[in-house]
User: Fold this.
Amino acid sequence: MSDDTIFALSSGNVPSGVAIIRLSGPKVRFAFETMIGFLPPARKAVLAELKDGSDKILDQAIVLFFEGPRSFTGEDCGEFHVHGSRAVLNVVLSELSHFDGFRLAEAGEFSRRAFENGRLDLTEIEGLSDLILANTEQQRVLAQKQTSGKLRALYDDWRNRLINLRAHIEADLDFSEEEDIPDDVNRHLIDGVGGLITDITAHIDSFVKGEIIREGFKVSLVGAPNSGKSSLLNALAKRDVAIVSEYKGTTRDIISISLNLDGFEVVISDTAGIRDTDDVVERIGIDRAIDSGRDANLTLFLQSSDQEPWNQSDLEDMFGDNVEIIYSKADLLSNKNIGDNSIYVSSISQAGLKDLEQLISIRARNSIGNGNQLFLTRMRHKLLLEKSLFHLNSILNDNEMLIELISEELRLASDQLGRIIGKVDVEDLLDAVFSEFCVGK
Assistant:
């Protein structure tokens, strides 16, 4: 860990009402004593004048001092709450940069120091990153659970169960002259490993739900050319995102928008119109449209009143079970009683848009089920859990495995869990994890 004292703008972009400059490191006290003339009481906001080396006033600011290790990074930390103009920010940052041993922080460096000083584990760090980037209520709740340490507690529990299994086996073997595993140890091992396999498998299965919350519930708009897909996308976005034209084949690539519907991030994609064509480029777009519909959490097939109707079973053969027919251009319909459960929309009159948004919201909520559970959200965690599961399954799948190898498989399974929370061999992961953060966090 660097001995430098780091500093950076920790609040939003200027200009703003207030800009927060954060400091962390061994010379934070020096910065306070030099720029305001004293060290303020820990954790108490104080109004003070920030001055440069020639005693010239730079700004009047609220200052805060956090004594290590009871701080975010575990080091001495400080905050200068200055007026949020570019001129004030530049002059204060420039003054700090002239101090020996001070430098601007790199992206994620405050959080990295918190990890290295044992203030946060990797799952909490990743949860903090997700919390900063959260756009919806569901993303906030999910990130808050991870930041609070609940995910670390879950993985720590599994890791401790593995360590106890290994210790129990080795302790019993120390008092046994037989090379075979005693029956009671064997039963304890099978029950323990089997229970862990069940718990870890269920957690891995939650990855799809966690990904829906974190990355967004994916909705694909598909249909024949000129069925109103691009117009509907624009109507939902409340702005012109896609080109709308009377000519067929206008949309050739996928255009996506993100909406916040009932606390869920929903990613809606407009796709190329599906038809038979000899145009090579348009054919590529149609293939992508079909793939988009198959991969989506919900596929909305737009059926225009002036086009030949499609059969539901044919659509399910093409896209799967998550396909719904939505009747578009409803303002042109003479009979709007399409069906008891049908939704018809008009991008011109806005008819049916609320019903469509409600359908999407319900589907998004139903897709995650009980939102109170701890969902798996990151591919890094998933891959390490699968490796841990591999070692555990190896034990149950080989009835003749030597006890020494069983102990080693338990150790390897435990190490994979340790890598998730940052307790085992994670140096190669740190740069990737902290690169997601902005400067000042």
